[in-house]
Amino acid sequence: MRRSTRARVGVVATIVAAVVVLIGVLAPAGEAMPASGRFVTAQYTDAQLTTVADQVYGTAKNHAGTTVSLKLDVYLPPAGGPAQRPLAILIHGGGFTSGDKSQMTSTAKGYARLGFVAVSLGYRTDPGANASTDQARWLGAALNAIDDGMEAVRWLRSKAATYGIDPTRISMVGSSAGGAIALGVGAADDPTPGGPLAAWSPKIRAAVSTGAHLTPGIDLGLITLQSTDAPALMFHYASDTVTGNTSAYARKTCDGLVAAGSRCTFVEQAGSGHTVGLAASGTRWTGSIGPFLWDELDLEHAGSTTTTTTTAPGSTTTSAPGTTTTTSTVPCTPDRTPFASTEALVRRQYLDLTGRQPTAQELNTASASIDACVASADGVIESLIPPSQTTTDARLVRLYHAYFTRAPDPSGLDFWTRQLASGRGLVVVAQNFATSSEFQRTYGSLGNGAFVDLVYRNVLGRNPDPSGRAFWVRRLDARVTSRGALMASFSDSSENTRTKHPVVQVWRAVRAMRQATPTTAELRTLTDPILAGTTRPTDAIRTVRHSSTYAARF
């Protein structure tokens, strides 16, 4: 689940505003790609590919306020090739109002036949959005789509070991609105940076689009392009029949990327039209898309030793005058504290958090990601924490916090875990808490109204609204609901589960890493800043990892 608060929305919204005027496809002009071979020409048939359909990469509220699952399809080349392969994420169009990931199935399979791990991305659309009649709603739909694109990159990076993805070589290829998403993910700050995938970067290494640009936002000074933005290959007609924009206007985006120190290739299509094909075959592939991805993803070295490269600021490629590319190593100092090697760090985290040694692929992927600074050690640790919020440990952590605003003590946790395992429900446990000596010592003898106030304050952090308070007091007075049932329902509510998610995850991390249940003071020190929105779970994990107590284990 993702944090609903939108940080730095201005930047993203202006990116979308720029895209509002033109929706299309981009594609770069490349260099030195061989005539054939892996990642260049087809190596496999469709029958050899494995399809992993409808993978849920997140959840979010749609235009109607309903929580929906965000899905993508993965297309995998057969086993026997490189342990890690570059990733191409294909994104459909539809003006952010319609469309489906199935529209890019054929195109995605084409990239997988070359040896890429390919993905067809689904994202939120709003059928009622209209740029002409309700720009705010349309911008909201576009912003949601870009946000979904970033969440997908985070999720896929976290699943690199599962799908054999090289997390340092990720590209997005989008048509129409999909092109806008590719550009937006390449250039924007993540508007919802929190959640369980926060440690995984949403950055991509290359963006290909057609019929889209960011020029309006740049002209208004609302978009700040940076040298770290993903290099782009932009295809645009001289006159866009959908948006009415000219190629000269669209090219300002490309020029802006170059001026900021990134790279951009602009390919103008003569005449009028909207998008061009993005297939991994044909003259557009061999002349533009393929060479662009070959250079930007460093495909010559893909599948061997992972390298991270960057091009000197200000260098550019264009379809007309010629190309210039300079490659240099990106400084990277991975933090392995307190371990002597990345391998030792990764092995220990798997043992502590999953109870087993990593597979060779898991070890190689996690180690390479840390060594290349694609993922932090703390991000890898966070990704290994069990995600479920419905297990006994998560429910008891929330219940202790709901009643006593503290972490479970080891003996109490052990006792109530056994009670739940024996078949006693959470309501029974909660009722025992309500009649416990600790409750009496802490709160004294509370009437039903005061108990309802306590539930709202401890669980929701606010006083009850008058109607809600009256409702629950009537039910308690009439003995229709017990205090245990009331507290259990609030403690296990979707709102509290979402709010306390970082508390549960940090508690799990500390318990696994230190092999000891965290104290209340320690848990508050680590999680209060997270709940206040000033830090992330990875910051708490880093604090634990750098502590003398943790180092003393080894």
List the helices and strands and how they pair.
Elements: H1 9-21, E1 24-25, E2 50-61, E3 67-76, E4 85-91, H2 105-114, E5 117-121, H3 135-158, H4 160-163, E6 165-174, H5 177-187, E7 206-211, H6 215-219, E8 232-240, H7 247-260, E9 264-273, H8 282-296, E10 309-311, E11 317-318, E12 322-323, E13 327-329, H9 342-354, H10 360-371, H11 377-384, H12 392-404, H13 410-421, H14 426-434, H15 437-443, H16 448-460, H17 466-477, H18 483-491, H19 494-499, H20 501-514, H21 520-531, H22 537-545, H23 548-551
Parallel strand pairs: 4-5, 4-6, 6-7, 7-8, 8-9
Antiparallel strand pairs: 1-7, 2-3, 3-5, 10-13, 11-12
Helix pairs in contact: 1-3, 1-5, 3-5, 9-10, 9-11, 11-22, 12-14, 12-16, 12-18, 12-20, 14-18, 16-17, 16-18, 20-21, 20-22
CATH class of the largest domain: Alpha Beta
Beta-strand fraction estimate: 5-15%
Number of domains: 2
The CATH architecture of the largest domain is 3-Layer(aba) Sandwich
Oligomer: single chain
CATH topology of the largest domain: Rossmann fold
Measure the end-to-end span. 35 Å
Give the CA-based shape. globular
Q: What is the makeup of the main sheet?
A: 9 strands, mixed
Mean pLDDT across all residues, rounded? 85
Properties at a glance:
globular, serine acetyltransferase, domain 1, nine-stranded mixed β-sheet, 554 residues, two-stranded antiparallel sheet, Rossmann fold, 13 strands, disordered N terminus, alpha/beta, single chain
Q: How would you sum up this structure in a few lines?
A:
This protein has 23 helices and 13 strands. The chain has 554 residues and is α/β, with parallel strands linked by helices. Helix 12 (392-404) packs across helix 20 (501-514).
